[in-house]
Amino acid sequence: GMAVSTVAVTADVLQVCMAHALSTEKEEIMGLLLGDVIDSTPPGSLTARIWSVSLHRREQAARSDDRVEISPEQLAAASDEAERMSAEMGLTTRVVGWYHSHPHLAVVPSHVDVNTQAMYQQLDSAFVGLIFSCFNSGLVVPGVPTGTQALLQDGLSHGFDGLMVSMGKTEGVGRVQVTAFQSSGYASDGTPVAPPPPQ
């Protein structure tokens, strides 16, 4: 499949994701991203446009591991939500990605994240991942200024007055850093390979 080069996120979605990420520093939160994927420039690349989120309320089970996982039930609920939105907006909406937080961790995808992402990409090669890194004043990606405002885009179709994140790049939004990533394929031993770290 073609590669996603950019993720366009509305301001509303950005606000919801950031509030969700900042709601707890004790564990990772996650959810699904709803929107569509359109042809982009350069030719052969795609832009994922995200205009809604399906929040995941974590079961309060005692969990020793810090894995974030999407349950089949959550995926089904998000798909139903997307169908409802499609009907209401007259704009085809589907599940196009997932997001999760990295409290006290840098914004770079972990091995687990890349494995999870690779699994989704087997089902949908254009599926994207967003990571919201928070509560991490001491843990930042070198060369990425903290506390910078994200580039707010004006005049994008369907009100994308939110954030444009290029794959593998990092944007700072107040106290939160955001990155978009995909798994870039597999090593010869069959393990998923992470994309290069943010520049």
Overall mean confidence score, pLDDT:
75
**So how many helices?**
3
The largest sheet has its strands arranged as: 6-1-3-2-4-5-8-7
Main β-sheet description: 8 strands, mixed
Shape, per Cα inertia axes:
globular
Instruction: Report low-confidence residues grouped into runs of 5 or more.
Output: 60-64, 138-160
What structural class do you assign from the helix and strand content? alpha+beta
Molecular structure report:
With 199 residues, this protein is of the alpha+beta class. The protein contains three helices and eight strands; from the N terminus they run βαββαβαββββ. An eight-stranded mixed β-sheet has the order 6-1-3-2-4-5-8-7. It is globular and about 40 Å long. Residues 60-64 and 138-160 have low confidence and may be disordered.
Quick overview of this protein structure:
By secondary structure, the chain is α+β, with helices and mostly antiparallel strands.
